Amino acid sequence: MTDRPIDLVALDIAGTSVDEGGAVYHALRSAVESHTGVPVPDDHFDRWKGAGKREAIAALLGATANDTTEIDAVERDFTARLLDAYRAVPPTPIPGIVDTFALLREQGIKVVLQTGYSRTITGPLIDQVGWRVGREIDAVITSDSVRASRPAPYLIFHAMEEAAVTDVAKVLVAGDTPNDLRAGANAGVRFIAGVLTGAYVANTLRREPHTHILTSAAAIPEALGLGKPARRT
User: Fold this and answer.
1) Is 181 exposed, middle or buried (0-12, 13-18, 19+ CB in 10 A)?
2) Which terminus of the chain faces fewer neighbouring Cβ atoms within 10 Å, N or C?
3) Pfam families annotated for this entry (predicted)?
4) Tell me: the pLDDT tens digits for 17-37?
5) Which residues on adjacent β-strands are paired with residue 216?
6) What are the chain's domains?
């Protein structure tokens, strides 16, 4: 298909491609508050949803980049809490997303997952949902592979690099948080889709840069006129 509108879909993982019940935010908040003994105000916490988790920890602690010992300790605690949560209640693919991956890849569109998680969390998570690079997806980009996570554009640029896509006008970014959408805007991509399967409602996401607000990332092919994914066994 030579006239496809995009060459790459760069998708967030938790809340966008995978349903993990919000375990990430419970683990993050509890790790920080257990360390400081002080509740994190909701408005401050919400600003860091969708961001790289190490950056979020540093901000929530009020720590500087030099406070690596404190940040490291809380990051280890957060990682352990989240992996425990995922073992107790395994995450599952968003309904229809695997069919969407298949349709996109059949039409020559690369599917790259990009996340605020580290590789330590992302590897087991992807294994739990049964996805493999080269089969369901084309690549996975984690926050510890870039200098700054969302809302910086580097996760998206790295996804483009992995997919050998050079034109931001041929990229769609999708995510469930304001920081996902801001990263898409900062990258200058053509399509930015907010999805309603995660942390925020439509009215909140509509205040951010976007071209689409979708009930789910599984609706991306229809939104772009690529057809409806067939249900596969």
Assistant:
1) buried
2) C
3) Hydrolase
4) 999 999 999 999 999 999 999
5) none
6) 8-20+92-223 (3.40.50.1000), 23-88 (1.10.150)
